[in-house]
Amino acid sequence: MLGETRRINIYTPPGHETGGPPLPVLYMPDGGMHEDFHHITGIVQVSTVNGTMRPFLVVGIENTERRRDLTGPTDDPEDRKIAPRVGGSAAFRRFIREELMPEIQQRFRTTDESAIVGESLAGLFVLETFFLEPELFDTYIAIDPSVWWNRGSLVKQAVPLLQRPGQPPRTLYVATADEPEMQRIVESIVDALRQVDVPGVHWHHEPMPDEHHSTIFHAAALRAFRTVLAPAAAEPTNEPGAVGTSPAAP
């Protein structure tokens, strides 16, 4: 699919190594051993043991050309300066859908539930997938996503994409650090979610003004897992800056 060998790293929670019940799967770009795999699996391990999140099989996708795989097309010349090749997110998504997911389901005992977590450009990929291929995952966790990409085009498309028929139920958690412009753009996405109010789509916006882009990942991932992957999720509210929800259709 991508025409290259990809290293995939797997974490199995304690007590689920062999013969245990099927597990939901948490996928993560930036999932190399020298990237964010150990950071996220450490949070998953502690959170699973202390009962603040459900056990998940974690699938880390190690990068080869990160900026190619995690970005969509762009017509902004400044964007194209970040790497020799960009705009490959559709092919990367196809690899996950058509190669990686079937392989994981074949090799491991899994449920039908899946989630994805990513930060920065990986957060952009999470949000783009939430809008463009919403049925791929059940839960989307986007941490300080690089929504400035292509002059913020994802924000401009948010309302019409949410208005497309046949929207599947899903959950979005998005956290932002102390950068005002990033917060403004993400708030526009939240406004689109409020405006369209898609049945069955739940969202949680978490501004974290005490965190920087370089520090937010751990703190936000911990909050996100406790919020949207908890053993028994709390009832969502419409408190500003907390949880928003489009209630499931009766």
Automatic annotation (TrEMBL):
Keyword Hydrolase: yes
Short name of one Pfam family: Esterase
Organism domain of life: Bacteria
Keyword line: Hydrolase
GO molecular function term, any single one: hydrolase activity
Region (Disordered): 1-22
Keyword Membrane on entry: no
Gene3D superfamilies named in the record: alpha/beta hydrolase
Family according to the record: Belongs to the esterase D family.
Protein name per its UniProtKB record: Alpha/beta hydrolase-fold protein
Species the sequence originates in: Nannocystis radixulma
